[in-house]
Description:
Elements: E1 2-7, E2 13-18, H1 31-49, E3 64-77, E4 80-95, E5 98-115, E6 121-128, H2 135-143, H3 147-151, H4 157-167, E7 175-177
Parallel strand pairs: 5-7
Antiparallel strand pairs: 1-2, 3-4, 4-5, 5-6
Amino acid sequence: MTAVRWATGAGAVVVLVGSGVWAMRPGQVDARLWEEVRPVIEARLTAEQRGTGYGEEVPALDAHWFCRAEPVGLERHGDEVRAGVDTLCVEYGVRDGGLVECAGGHVPQVLRLARAADGRYRVVSHEQAPDGAGNADWTESHFGRRTFALRDAMSSAPLENAARARYGLREDAPVGDC
């Protein structure tokens, strides 16, 4: 735990206290913890997307959501974890032997997880940046200087590969629009 003090105008003193985990740069997270919580987070993201995409309205597409999360910051307090993540969810279907992309979104999120009695984590709360006005302010307030990591587009290649595998398509099957 670190604390920084400095004086500001009118004699006020500001004290900032930060956790060493959140002070880490992206990519410097507890890999073991991330491996425990990632599947839970990605399953939750996928479940939340069901029923929201165009492809699901067209039964012939057999559309499904595929989501991935990348850690921006992890903080563990006992049996609870606060996970700041960058997420990408894409809805894929299949038509004429090819993969089609029907909907998707790239959104930073903060999830809180708790360890259950069986030792597994479960999501207990979830916040995400709003669309449009307020997105930048929310992202800055929840991720601070780590927002630079969120500016890079997440690759959809792992999601495309998972979708191709689910539908039994060739690895080089083209991706079109719904």
